[in-house]
Amino acid sequence: MLSAYALPAQQLDFRFVVISFFTIGFGSQLTIQIPRAKAHFSVSDAFVFLILLLYGGEAAILVAAAEALFTSLRFRRSGITIRADGILFNCALMACSTSLAYWTLRFAFGPIVPLARYGRPSTFITALCLMAFVQFAANSTLAAVYTAYESNKPVWPTWNEHYFCSSITYFAGAIISGTMVRLAGGFSFYAVFAMTPITAIAYLTLRRYIN
């Protein structure tokens, strides 16, 4: 709710709508089952990161929550049992982790959009790594706590067994999103979709590696 209230609507444009629909419609289809667990994680982080870098944290938080909702409902329609509280948790999880990543970057580097578009390459790469790490740490930790509570198991073994393997998706997503931002700045905005095949290849590689 706070993100919706603080959303700078005047800065949003048709390109934001395109990326948002692409994130929710395409990104949410790329999910990988967590080994030995009745759960999945999405590899749509690259598009959520892209929105964060281009439009700021409020827009990214809302799209991340919407993507989690759409993914959960898609699984529910396919016959996978997901309780209502699980759907709410997934949305809150994505919103909280994206918010934490955004505010960490704001604290460390200042306004995100100017940094993404005009920042020095070394600073920008450092910001991408920090963004990926915070998103991964927050997302995986909260998910592990929830899973451990549901299965009555310790948190650390649950995280180590089920969620540590997802770390590569966040760092790959950060690299892809950073490349997209620089492509948008140096070429046409729609050049960012040239990275879509790379995202698909990364997804197929990760699915084969993890499963």
Topology:
Blueprint: H1 2-6, H2 14-25, E1 31-33, E2 40-42, H3 45-55, H4 57-77, H5 84-109, H6 112-118, H7 121-151, H8 155-163, H9 167-186, H10 196-210
Antiparallel strand pairs: 1-2
Task: Please count the helical segments.
Answer: 10
Mean pLDDT: 79
Distance between the termini: 37 Å
Percentage beta strand:
under 5%
Helix content: over 70%
User: Which runs of at least 5 residues are low in confidence (pLDDT < 50)?
Assistant: none
The biggest beta sheet is recorded as:
2 strands, antiparallel
Rg to the nearest angstrom?
Answer: 16 Å
Order of helices and strands: HHEEHHHHHHHH
Helix/strand/pairing class, anyone?
Answer: mainly alpha
Count of β-strands: 2
Strand order of the largest sheet: 1-2
Give the overall shape, derived from the CA principal axes.
Answer: globular
Question: Which tags fit this structure?
Answer:
211 residues, mainly alpha, two-stranded antiparallel sheet, 10 helices, 74% helix
Structure report:
- The chain is mainly α.
- The chain contains 10 helices and 2 strands; from the N terminus they run H-H-E-E-H-H-H-H-H-H-H-H.
- The protein has helices at 2-6, 14-25, 45-55, 57-77, 84-109, 112-118, 121-151, 155-163, 167-186, 196-210, and strands spanning 31-33, 40-42.
- It has a two-stranded antiparallel ribbon.
- The longest helix is centred in the middle third of the chain and has 31 residues, at 121-151.
- The protein is globular, with a radius of gyration of 16 Å.
- The N and C termini lie far apart (37 Å).
- The model has no long low-confidence stretch (mean pLDDT 79).
